[in-house]
Amino acid sequence: MGKILVIDDEADLLEMMRLVLQQRGGHEVTLSAEGHDGLTKAVANPPDLAIIDVMMPGMTGYDVCRRLRANPVTASIVIMILTARAQPMDREAAMDAGADDYMTKPVTMTELLERVNELLSRQPEPPPAFSGTFALASLRGGVGVTTLAVNLAVALTQTSGEPVCLVDLCPTSGHVALQLGLRPEPNWSAIIEAADAGDIDAEGIEPYLLSHNSGLRVLASPFVPVVERGISQKAAHVLLGALQQQFPVLVVDVPSTLDEATMAVMQVASALGMVLTAEPPSLQTSIGTLRSLSQWSSKLYAIMNQVAPGPQLPADAIARALKHPVAATIAFDPSQARALAQGTPLTLSSPDSPFAQAIRGLGQVFGR
Amino acid sequence: MREQISTAWLVGDFFTYRHRLSGRIDVRHNKLPAQLNDPTSSFLELEDAYVSNVERPAEIVASYSSSILRKQNVTAVVLSNQDDGLLRTQTYGSYFGTYLRKLFITVPSFEIIGYLRLSSKLDLRTVLTTGTDAFIPVLDGEMRSSIRPEVFFTGGVILVNKDQIGVFCVETEKK
Questions:
Q1: Which end of chain A is least crowded, N or C, by CB within 10 Å?
Q2: For helices A233-246 and A260-268, angle between their N-to-C axes, nearest 10 degrees
Q3: Interface pTM (ipTM) of the complex?
């Protein structure tokens, strides 16, 4: 017996599916008449199998498929498209959107039930181990790097199944800790000299990590800005190395300068997210950054962060300007200001919001 | 319990020379050709129509809960199930004495191959002018884009608007 979610806008067909799958098949069936509602139900109670129509008002079955695949909570659900669109290119489109199987209406109850049982009997593949050091940076301030880093770290704590540590390397005011509602004490300023001397390891760094109630650990930066010196390249290498021994997943909030600490992160990061907005100064800075960091272009991901409401330049226009693909677009969320004030990231307070879904999608992009 | 799970109305792909509309139509307990060939109405009403450009036919660009098509501008209708596209007089007891002719048709933007079922000798000069039916059924049809040959549609039957046919070719008889 499996949990099946059926999303179709035809009431008669939904009822028929319930009869077939529940009474004849013995499955637990949830019905939904449209895509948005179906997505909400899938996130709230992830089914083993989703049977989705293509032609539905508001959101097509292809869009539902893509949204399910983009959300780590629903990404592994087996998806069957059941539609009256029977052309070969329709099947291709469904598979491209992330479907596992495709059936065309009309279908007999016996055929449907056999296919459903076959899909449910397939053994799910074990998820690949998730690990990596993911850095977020921008040489132009005010584009939301810290907010994205905090939300990404929280999302990965929830979805990766691995211990995650968030590292704030910015030598100004401990904003990472504040966004999590934590007091940035202790912080790396207490161990920077030991790190400079190469005298710190995983065990030695543990007492200096903060604990957030989501399970995330944090290496905070000092509340009072560091005067004269930041973190040397050697100290950054030592700190990150010590943390990598203990945490399979690191998220690093990188300073907005190409200083020694930033260069150390570039060297050890498995992926570097370059955060930008659609405003000309940010674009100009990003074009220059890509040029300066061209030796790492294979692990550089452009992330467009919408920090203001209203129409934005489309991602493909940004990509053309950058001559680099835009890996993710993070939607503007008016609740962000409240989340910052309350010290509760949106990935925790509004896990189903488009912002939170985009952040989880970003985690998947980095994890590939 | 009904054995077949199907949509309540007839679902088909309706083509103009630039667009594909997938939608459902109330055939009023009859077959679609009866509506297509009804000379008292110039329009077809579609419910829940999903619009694609024929160059990207799998990509749904818009959807509308109700829409109307001018029949004379419908190039062809592709239906999966052959029975849905044939009148009862063309399906029941009508196989004896009929034969199939393979054909090739051009209409704006598309080339169509398939079979024409005939009960009498085919006269090429009269096939497009004789009779009152505006649409002819092409059995086991394949409709391919003239400009992008990789784009094609198949159906148990394709109902083709006779007024839009540019070229009509047939192969030798099949008994």
A1: C
A2: 40
A3: 0.82
